[in-house]
Design a protein that fits this description.
mainly alpha; 3 helices; elongated
Length: 133
């Protein structure tokens, strides 16, 4: 017998949550870079006075942006995986998928190793089975 909490379709909420998380990550990264560049305007001016061409200063800035993005992506992937494993372990008895549930095919294909063994990703996607109280 499942609880009424597990019978609620939260796909719309998940989309909103992921969109908000992405917007928050972009805003935080942009704020970090803008504030960092504002603090180092004098450093960039000094580099120009010492003979650095604008192209070199621009390459330095782009290298910093790329390095910050890659480091943030790696940190996010590692911490996200650790957090998801912990949450799955803690909530495994509460939010188990109903019998007959199948993964949404191509979306989960790259993550087959980490998806619950009860979830058969080789089958075509389907609508979750109806839950009867």
């Amino acid at each position: 017998m499942g609880s009424s909490l597990t019978a609620v379709d939260l796909s719309g909420l998940t989309t909103v949550e992921l969109g908000f998380a992405l917007a928050l990550a972009v805003a935080a990264t942009g704020l970090l870079l803008v504030l960092g560049f504002a603090e180092r305007r004098r450093t960039f001016a000094l580099a120009a006075v010492l003979g650095a061409r604008p192209r070199q200063v621009g390459a330095f800035i782009w290298a910093e942006v790329v390095l910050t993005g890659v480091m943030a992506a790696v940190f996010g992937a590692v911490s996200g995986r650790a957090l998801s494993r912990m949450l799955v372990a803690v909530l495994s008895g509460v939010f188990d998928p109903p019998t007959g549930w199948r993964c949404p095919g191509p979306i989960w294909a790259p993550f087959r190793r980490w998806v619950s063994p009860r979830c058969s990703c080789r089958e075509p996607p389907c609508v979750p089975p109806a839950v009867h109280p």
